Amino acid sequence: MGFVDATVTKQAGDKGNDNIASVQNGITSVHDVVQVKSVQKNLNRCVLGKLRAVLHFLEAIRGTIISASAFSRGCTEVATCPGAAPLTIIDGDPLIDLPVEHGVGISTEHVDLLALTGLPGDYVASDEVLPERSTHPVNSAAPLW
User: What are the chain's domains?
Assistant: First the structure.
């Protein structure tokens, strides 16, 4: 995500993780407070307000909240409110995509995929209906079709 010089702050009561980090934004380096929430319930607009309220005390320009739970309706509008310090909220699919995008905690494997080629197209006519599959296990002597 581009963070450098990250410092972990004291853990709060939500069992999450709070960090202060710098991020390069073009030619400017800015401080960002990153909160990682570990709660079961959806996060509401109050959580965003509390983060925004402490930014200036920590000499931060912006904030980020990462959560395995979801954000309630209205959080996106509050996070991008004109004239206020910008907040980034990350949950759901974007949260799942982050480790893949940044190569954190994952590894990649390349596998060969075999495909049959050169089979004539007349094995199954377009209007032919295949019989129902058998419910017998694959390793039995019964046919699969």
Answer: 3-102 (3.40.1350.10)
